[in-house]
Amino acid sequence: MDFEPITRPLTDAEARAEAERIITQSFQPETPPVRHFPTSFRDTTPPPAYGDTPPVHQDDKRIVPAWAAGIAVASIGVGAGITGIGCGAWLVLQGLASVTLYGVLMVTLPFAGLAMVATAIGGAVSKARQSVSKTVYEGPVVQNTQITNTSTTRGMFSRTRNDVR
């Protein structure tokens, strides 16, 4: 490219030729297009309908086991029931001068103990039962993995989210 300043103005023919050269040069690619190679492989063979497909481990997403949640709900119910019994005993015995907190607790203690024993027995019985498997699946199996990456992140504070399905 000629960077020396032109000392005389261009003629119309020279200006037209220079403009065509600049336009032609700007619309031509500088390098040939890059050939892209595939970075993944898709198996197009159909999966077998029954039999040979290996099982896929599916993680259990529950945070608290069902039996623990049941015992927690039962404990809340027992606590609410004992509170009601204690309030009833306090209302009945309010007029007596010898009623103390320790006396009310001693009256309600057998009821609370009985309720706790019943909850423990129920939890033990429910854990001792044999589990029944109802998730036997004999239908066709489809295995599909799709990874979508739509990353247009720019800058210092950015986030890339990859959706794996």
Task: Quickly list its features.
mainly alpha; single chain; two-stranded antiparallel sheet; 165 residues
Please describe what this structure looks like.
With 165 residues, the protein is mostly helical. It has a domain of 62 residues. 42% of the residues lie in helices and 4% in strands. The protein has 3 helices and 2 strands, in the order αααββ. It has a two-stranded antiparallel ribbon with strand order 1-2. α2 runs antiparallel to α3. The longest helix has 28 residues. It is elongated, with a radius of gyration of 40 Å. The two termini are 53 Å apart.
Mean pLDDT: 79
The largest sheet has its strands arranged as: 1-2
- The number of helical segments is 3
Strand share of the residues? under 5%
The major pleated sheet works out as: 2 strands, antiparallel
What is the 3D form? elongated
Low-confidence stretches: none
Strand tally:
2
Topology record:
Layout: H1 12-26, H2 66-92, H3 101-128, E1 147-149, E2 162-164
Antiparallel strand pairs: 1-2
Helix pairs in contact: 2-3
Provide a short characterization of the protein structure.
The protein is mainly α. The chain contains three helices and two strands. The protein has a domain at 66-127.
